[in-house]
Request: fold
Amino acid sequence: MIRADKINHNYYYPEQFKESGEKFLNSYTLEKEVSCPSEKIKGLKDKKSRVCRFCHKKYPFVSFSKDAHIFSELLGNKYLVSDFECDDCNSKFGKYENDLANFLGIIRTIQSVKAKKVPKFKSADKKLEAESTQELDEGTIVKVRRFDGLNKTFHFNKEKQQTEITYEKGPYTPLNVYKAILKMALSIIDEKHLADYKFAFEYLRTNKHDKNYSGFGIVTSYSMPLTFQFQQPTGMLFKKINSNAKLFTHLFYFAALNFIYEIVIPFNRQDAMFYQIPGGLDTLWCPPLFGHHKEERILSVYSNSLNLNSVERLYNQKETFVLPTKEGEYDKSRFLNKETGEVYEEEFDGSKIIGIDLLRIDDPNE
Ligand SMILES: [Zn+2]
Reply:
């Protein structure tokens, strides 16, 4: 682990990102870090004096009666709300967030995200359900059940010692998923930069420009094992140090559950001059950042580049998630004889298994 001294002494990043991490931290500085408070925030503007930063409309031409969450509520943000998002924009962005939820799939349930209520998950083809059920003293039980006659859902991979669970995601439009992330980014931009991002706000709100300005929907993602979880959603804005550098002015970094998403914020007026030069702007990505105590719990970090530019709605997307399994787990199965109360053993037969219970043990350090 390397300490990210240049931005924040409490953050570290894994050795494997040494080179790219140094490059990034030499070029960008942390402008803002926003985490979710554990209670209601105070000091919001009175509803009658609010202006929407997204559509620029004021009360009473638009209403501000709903709680407008800066980071998506479905990722566990309860109290971080804004006073600059009108109800119209809020419901528009709600659609993007529904797509984000479908895109994320089962993970919110597996991680028992503390949203309004822990989401119950049903796969699009209704063959898999997951529910976070009992809160025990030591943790939470997540029940995963399959409802398909011929088992195509659970695969017990003896060779790799892992259980693979395949399910179908709900429909989503990739560009909407991207816009759900962009919305969070534009929500934490400082007032002084708003004029520079005038077009970005318009691009976010409408679909008029989706075709003419395509190609920005690229997300760099880092994902950690299911056993890892960030305590709360956190967003960071990084600003390039040298304003003449051929780089996007801002990068948005967002961490929640067991993943990190990064996007460059598009359409900054100051960046426009670089669009013309051959090769355009360069992109550098921030390394995944962790607090120190998590070090031993981060077994692996997978990096991925997600292309979310498509405006085509995707159906029947399959995803497999993998659970590590102890050696010997697939040798014998234990059954309970309900009449005698006796426990007996039989040869392991995966096709008989219709449910898997996961125990999530809460971290006492958090
Ligand atoms: Zn609005």
About this structure: Residues 1-366 form one domain.
